[in-house]
Amino acid sequence: MALMKRIANLFRRERLNEEIEAELRAHIEMRTEENIAAGMTPEAARRDALVRFGNPGAMKERVAARDVNLVLDGVWRDLHYAARQLRRSPAFALTAIATLALGIGANVAVFGVLSAVLLRPLPFPYADRLVRVYSVKGGQQIGPSPLDARDFAAASHTLQYLAAYDQWRKNVVTTRAGDVPQQTKVGLAPAELFEALSVRPLMGRLFLPEENQEGRNREALITARYWKLHYGGRSDILNQSLIVNDIRYRIIGVLPETIPAWVNEAETQIDVWEPFFPTPGFWEESNRPGRGYQAVGLLRPGVTLGQAQAELETLAQGLAAAYPVDRGYGVRVQPLAETRAANMTGVLLLLMGAVGLILLIACSNLAGLLLARNTARRREFAMRAALGAGRGALVRQILTEALLLSGIGAGCGIGVAGAGLAVLRARYAEIPQLVESGLDWRALAFTLLVAVLTTIGFGLAPALLESRVNLCDALKESGRTGGSIRQRFRKALVVGQIALSLVLVIAAGLLTQTIVRLEGQDLGFRVDHLLRAHFYLPPARYATPESITQFCAQFYQRAQALPGVRDVSITTIYPPADLWRMNFSIDGRPVSTAEDIPQARFGVTDEHYLSTLGIALVRGRDFASTDTEGSPAVAIVNQAFVRRFFAGGDPVGHSLLMGTPPGQSVPDEWMANEHERVMVVGVMADAKNSGLEADPEPQFITLYRQAPLVNFGFKDIVVRSSVKPETLGPELRREIEALDATLPLAEVQSMKDLISGQTWDKRFTASVLGGFAALGLLLAVVGMYGVISFLVAQRTQEIGVRMALGATRGSVLWMVVREGLALGIVGVGFGLAGSAMAGRSLSGMLYGVRAFDAATVLASAAALVAIAGAASFIPARRAAGIDPATVLRSE
């Protein structure tokens, strides 16, 4: 207690100084009175007292220094003794450090990702004022129309800037010799975007407002990375040429790499930017329906988020009154920082909870190990207590050993976390948020906090138990049994480890089942031996629908002739997601209001689409080669279309008018105010067209050669093969280059890989959670093995007596295994209760499986009970091999 008081004195120096001064005054007064009583004058008596006690300031410093020296000396002695004890038990020390390194490392790694996504400040000067603006309809938010964003910016008094921008896949090549065309995502942005983000070029300038106009938008910005990679960091980069979709752009500036990929909702950082002028006539009112763009704004100084929200809601109501296409749309303003996580917030919180369980398992494991080790040292503690050591000194010593272990484990854990983050970044490079993850000061501070908590977690209970030393009891137990309280505590720790491990195993099993069911479900088409790739025919050289059709026909013929190719289709649609929607109307069914205009998913293709993808034809006929440019246009609808718009009847023979119905003032996003008529000739089976987790939506498709208004240059080639589809990628590239050497083939991937990419968030969560479950299970097995081994060692005399009295080896083996199975069953019981509660947090990520799936739960529970029995088997064999004569002689 004296040492604790001195430690406390270090943190209350002002009060301590006052106490020292008061005590000095009292002593000086007493000495002065004694001197006066001895015959000295008051002045001489006072002077003598002051001389004897010296300078009060120096006295205070000596007292404080003594406190510091005593504290540091005590800490050093405890640490030195703890280190010596750990050197004497290298197996225990290595096991404890490895356990802590894994537990702390897993926590720090996940925290490193969470910190980068949720806690780290944005890399922009006015980050707290940056917002995203969304359109909202029916509770769903989508990027606004650029025309709406333009009108918001013009009328707003709360926004200093508001910039709508986008990204398009384009064919890009430099004018340097040897550079080949690459299809890359090019950012389309006005100058206001860079002003809002406060991005300043490393050299050159940004876009000018007038460059966001037709004929004046042939300027480009590149990032420093692109500058170094393609131009070697040349100082004369300004005014160099960059060819984008066969159009020459002039490089006017080099941007720093300060705009992360997640800001642009892209997989990788965008390296090439051009003014936001997507197509001629883009800013006409006919393009107001086009939504899905990104919009970033900067609040004016002093403006709150609520004020901006209220103002934009009023402006949105005005736009809805002026433009029918805006009716039913609201607006939402959200801090940019809150959108960084995208859909990873729930995943990261789930993983943070999982690593928290890992740390609890590790702490309980170490508590059991420390308790077992300290039980063997009970005579040492008893002797120290007999020699005068108080309970506080014993607790301090045990906690010092735990702190030393935690410190070393935390240091190793930082290395484990760094390696784990490197693996995650390499394996899941398509997750832009992971690129920014790493170990910063927040991660180091978190590591320190976790080290302190683990010290308390696994050191406090053993310290309190072992510090309650009774000399007689310690000598009677002879270091063997450790006491019934300690045995029950060890068993409780094992039960807790099994329970927590079961929660992790069940969660990982449910997510794995979700992935299996998502990817293994009937998608409505054949996934095997299917390859897909994307290409773009730039309008500069493919200006007419006829030229696009001609190129696609030639590419089809070349691809179809390749060895190993069974069928080929050139199309704009491919399951499991079709993002293109089209307004339409059915002949004989007039539309009275804009809200009643039917809409369905839509795409254009060739006559080989159904056969290549393996989609069944349910009714009517397929497209045919006789459906030419000059013949009546035809369409095929899916079953969901029939159920929605024909009430299960027969749509074959009915005509659809593509585009906004005549008489309505709401232009179609793709066809503006134009129309094309198609006749339904067939019904195809439903195939996934809105993602793996959603039911197929109504859809109709037509031939691009019969629909010139929507025969755009962006196309996909889908190939069905008899060989591994990945092997056809280089062949397809050679064939398209033979037709046009300036055209790159991009996003070449098998359909299986494409579908796997649709489940990246669940795959990421399941793989990481599965690793944590395996780690937790390993720690639980080690804990179970350690406790059972320790109990067997403590019961050696009892087992020897049993065998001397006739107990067989089999009965002894079963007795020990039965004890392990009992602990496993109790732990599973608690784990099932915990899994039922944890299942609620998982329910939003599951598909085709319930949060408490009986098969998964029962299989996981049975596996853990079996593992508990297996972990007990080796100690049981050791117990069955005890020689009773040897045991009895030793006693």
Report on the architecture of this protein.
With 891 residues, the chain is an alpha+beta fold. The protein contains 26 helices and 22 strands. The strands form three sheets. The protein has a six-stranded mixed beta barrel. A hairpin with a 2-residue loop joins β1 (130-137) and β2 (140-142). α2 (13-37) crosses α3 (42-53), α16 (484-520) crosses α25 (854-880) and α24 (809-842) runs antiparallel to α25 (854-880). It is globular. The chain starts with a helix and ends with a helix. Mean pLDDT is 81; it is low at 68-72 and 477-482.
The gist of it:
It is built from 26 helices and 22 strands. The protein is an alpha+beta fold and 891 residues long. Strands 3-4-9-6-8-7 form a 6-stranded mixed beta barrel. Strands 14-15-20-17-19-18 form a 6-stranded mixed beta barrel.
Secondary-structure blueprint:
Blueprint: H1 2-9, H2 13-37, H3 42-53, H4 56-88, H5 90-119, E1 130-137, E2 140-142, H6 146-155, E3 159-174, E4 182-188, H7 191-196, E5 203-204, E6 219-223, H8 224-231, E7 241-244, E8 247-255, E9 272-274, E10 294-299, H9 305-322, E11 330-335, H10 345-375, H11 378-386, H12 391-427, H13 432-435, H14 441-467, H15 471-477, H16 484-520, E12 530-536, H17 545-560, E13 565-571, E14 581-586, E15 599-605, H18 609-613, E16 617-620, E17 634-638, H19 639-645, E18 655-658, E19 676-684, E20 699-703, E21 714-721, H20 729-739, E22 746-750, H21 751-758, H22 760-794, H23 796-804, H24 809-842, H25 854-880, H26 884-890
Parallel strand pairs: 4-9, 6-8, 15-20, 17-19
Antiparallel strand pairs: 1-2, 1-10, 1-11, 3-4, 3-7, 3-10, 5-8, 6-9, 7-8, 12-21, 12-22, 13-21, 14-15, 14-18, 16-19, 17-20, 18-19
Helix pairs in contact: 1-4, 2-3, 2-4, 4-12, 5-10, 5-12, 5-14, 6-9, 10-14, 10-16, 10-22, 12-14, 16-22, 16-24, 16-25, 17-20, 22-25, 23-26, 24-25
